[in-house]
Each structure stands twice: as C-alpha cells, then as structure tokens.
Amino acid sequence: MSTEDREPNDLPRTSTGSDGLDDILGGGFDANRMYLYEGRPGTGKTTIALQFLLKGVRDGERGLYISLSETKRELDVVAQRHGWSLEGVDIFELVPPETSLDPDRELTVFHPAEMELSETTNLIFKEVERVNPTRVVVDSLSELRLLAQNSLRYRRQVLALKHFFTHRNCTVVLLDDLSSSQDDLQLHSIAHGVVMLEQLALEYGAERRRLRVIKMRGIRFRGGFHDFTIEKGGVRIFPRLVAAEHHRPFFGEFTLSGNSELDQLLGGGLERGTNALLIGAAGVGKSSLALTYAIAAAKRGEHAVFFAFDEGRSTIEARAKTLGLPLERYIESGNLRFQQIDPAELSPGEFAANVRKSVESDNARIIIIDSLNGYLKAMPDERFLVLQMHELLTYLAQQGVLTILVLAQHGLVGPMDTPLDISYLSDAVVMLRYFEVAGTVRRALSVVKKRSGHHEHTIREFRLTSAGITLGPPLTEFSGIFSGNPRYLARQRPKDRLNER
C-alpha cells in the first residue's frame, strides 16, 4: 500500500461510483477535491466518469458533465448500452453539434478556431455557477491543451480551474486521453489524485484492461495494477488480492476424500487451510482424484467449487459417471459448482475475484483449480503467475479452505518435464505416474510431501473403476516407478493385487 501524510482534519469520503475503486481507496475520494483519470482512448474513462456522476444522482446530488470532445447524443448512446438513464445529470456541450447551428440557440458551442481558451474556461465557470453541482466531470483536457498551445498557458488554465472549484462544495474529475507527445506530469502535481487506466493487446485472446492509482493525497490506497473489465452496467474493477488483509478463524480438522485407503495414505486426510498439488501425466487420474474430494464435500453438505481451465462440463460429467460419482445431483443441489474458465478471455484479477466470491459469499470449503497449465496460459509472464498464486493460496489458507491444484507434466511415460515448479508453495504433493508391467499400463501414486503432518511413504497402485478410485497395497516388489524405469525385483511374475481384491 501507498500513503501520504493525512491532512489535519479527516475529510468526508465520496464514492467513486465503482465498488472496486472504492475498495482500492479504502472508501472513495476525499470530498471537494480535484482528481484526474488518464488513459489512452478506449480505456474506459468516460464510462467510469459517468458512474461517478450517476452514483451522485442516486445519493440525491447534482451532477454536471462538461464535454469538450463528445456530444450529448454520443453520451446518451454510451448510457443506453449500459442500461443507464442520464436523467438527473446536466450535460454541458462545448463541441460542435452534428446538425447545423440554430441561430437562436444560446452560444454554448466551442471550436478551437473561434474561441479563445479564456472564453472557454469562463463558459465552464458560468455553467458551474448556474447548475451548482456537487460532482463535476470535465472531458477532456486534451481540448484545453490544444487551445493553450504551450505548456505554461495550459498549466495556468488548469490551475484556474482548480482555484475556482476550491471555493465550491464540489468534487471534480478531469479526464485526459494522453494525446500530447509527452506525459504532462505537471498535471499530476495539480490534481489531488491520479488514476491511470490502460488497455493491453495480447498476442491472442481478448484485450486486457488494468488501472493503477498513481497518486492520492492523504488517502491510504492499495498500490499496483488492478484488472478491470468494461461490461454492461459499467466498469467492473477487481482489486489486487492482498492476503494479509483477510483473516478468518477456523479449526484445521481433516477433510476426508470419501476413500478410507486414500485418507490413510495421507495420514488421516488433508487439513483445512492447506493446499495439495496433484501432479502427473495427462490422463493419469489427477482430475478424477480432485473430483473425488469435491463429491465427498458435497455429500457432507459443504460447498465445493471446481474451476476447469482445460475440460468442459460434459467431459467432467462423463468421467464422473464412469467413476460412479453423482456429480449432476450435487450440482443441481447447489453444493457443488462447476465453472469452466476460458484463459484467453479471463484476466487473473477477475479469476481471483471469482474465487473470493466463492469463499466469502457462497462459503466454499473446497476449491479445485484444474489445471495450473490452463491458468498459466492466462498470464503473460510466469513470474507473475507464481506471485499471484502465492497470494491466492495464502488467502485461501487464512480462510480455512482446502485448495486442490492440478498440474499436468509434459510427457506420458519416462522422464517428465514440469512446465511450472510450484511445489514449494504446496503443503502436500501427490505424485501420480504410469508404469508398465508385463505388457500392461498401470497407475501408481504416492504422497511425496506433506507439511501438516505424517503420511505414508509408500508407492501404491491405483485404478479408476465404476466404484471410484481403488488403491492397492504398497508396491514393494518394484523399484524405479517414479523415475520412469520400473524394475521388478521378485523372481515370480508380478501379481495383479487389485484384481485379487
């Protein structure tokens, strides 16, 4: 977090109109101050500015939108597509109308070649005095910059705006589309706070939007970049998750899988407030093992959420049927929620917000992320994935949630390559491998790490059957199973212990 010294008298707060931005700022803007939203065209400045004014209308405040770049008709279209009505918001146009000028119309139309900068600011002052608003938006400063022609005159006019509003009971938001050849950092020193909005074009998938609070005098805010989307209803901001801000007391009892042999292998089960990494080749049974935990939780009446990055619901349902797991029943009852994630469309910040909602609003006690490989594709840089996953896992641990992570290794048999080493973040690691015996492919699993308690150090064969997951006795007759080169140590042909059961 970033902060500056508080002013002697704590100012009342004014909502920005965005719950996410209010959360980042710890309650909103200081009232009766001037703020700056800056960003390239298309980043959402106009939308979030309208939200600021509409929030004032809902609170019984007067709002004024001073437009130097868009017409009222254009603003009405923006509002309609978001399902808003601009009734209660005064719009003062200082742009040429789309139709011919009405000679009887009051002079409120601005054109750079026809009017001096001082006349423009005077028109703004008169309109503010006439309307007497509590909230004002000026869109955009780029037009004033063009009129000013030089940085000194431009700064003087912005200072004049600031001094004018200083003597009024009014919170002002200035918009700047950064159309100048270089950033006007001097504007940052004039504004009480600065919020930067960005739009990033990825090589594949939807564009990503994020914002950052650059400066906010006297307000403690959450620093760094915060993902946001523009959807029907306005800008939706996902504040960056800071695990240290979220604590909830809980009792760390065992969370059972519904399979007594598996729980025995894990030393009694997986504790609440921990996370387990299931790692192995594609198709070896990682998702089935995770699904077993989700069904067991739903059967106990707990809420579980299965986030699928790689497979669709129909595939998961088909797998559940082959294992004899009543997935559809618990989805219909609401105890289990299945959500398919498209990593090309969903930002990491939005995913973290989705997980938070599952825990805080829906009281989810088990979260399954299948798989980290798909989550990795949602991130432009692997370093940030590890940092975000660390914060997310810490948050879930402090909420008493059992988190199960699935990670697919590259390859099917022999030496395996892991696309991401996240084992050091995991409280428990369960390794699943294929191995070949007498011309047949079998599966083995072992708990190779568990921080929270004792566990078996054996390697057991397991199978996926119509009755669920079945575990066999320890594979004491084999060596080198996990190295990819298994060797049978006994002289007799290995028995099929699971079929004997």
Give the end-to-end Cα distance, rounded to a whole number of Å.
Answer: 59 Å
The Cα radius of gyration reads 30 Å
Instruction: Write down the overall mean pLDDT.
Output: 87
- Low-confidence runs of at least 5 consecutive residues: 1-9, 96-115
**What kind of sheet is the major sheet?**
9 strands, mixed
CATH superfamily of the largest domain: P-loop containing nucleotide triphosphate hydrolases
**What is the 3D shape?**
elongated
- Strand order, main sheet: write it out: 5-4-6-7-3-8-9-10-11
Number of separate structural domains: 2
Q: What share of the residues lie within helices?
A: 25-40%
The number of helices is 15
Kindly list the characteristics that best describe this protein.
alpha/beta; Rossmann fold; 501 residues; single chain; nine-stranded mixed β-sheet
What does this structure look like?
This protein has 501 residues and is an alpha/beta fold. The chain has 2 domains: 13-240, 3-Layer(aba) Sandwich (Rossmann fold); 245-500, Rossmann fold, CATH 3.40.50. The strands form 5 sheets. Strands 5-4-6-7-3-8-9-10-11 form a 9-stranded mixed beta sheet, sandwiched between helices. The chain has 15 helices and 24 strands. It has helices at residues 19-24, 45-58, 72-81, 117-131, 141-148, 151-166, 185-190, 260-265, 286-299, 313-322, 327-333, 348-360, 372-377, 382-398, 497-500, and strands spanning 13-14, 29-30, 34-38, 63-67, 89-93, 135-139, 171-176, 193-200, 208-216, 225-231, 234-238, 254-255, 270-271, 275-280, 303-308, 336-340, 364-370, 402-408, 428-437, 440-450, 460-465, 468-474, 478-479, 487-488. The chain starts with 12 loop residues before the first strand and ends with a helix. α4 (117-131) runs parallel beside α6 (151-166), α5 crosses α6 and α12 packs parallel to α14 (382-398). Helices cover 30% and strands 26% of the residues. β4 (63-67), α3 (72-81) and β5 (89-93) form a beta-alpha-beta unit.
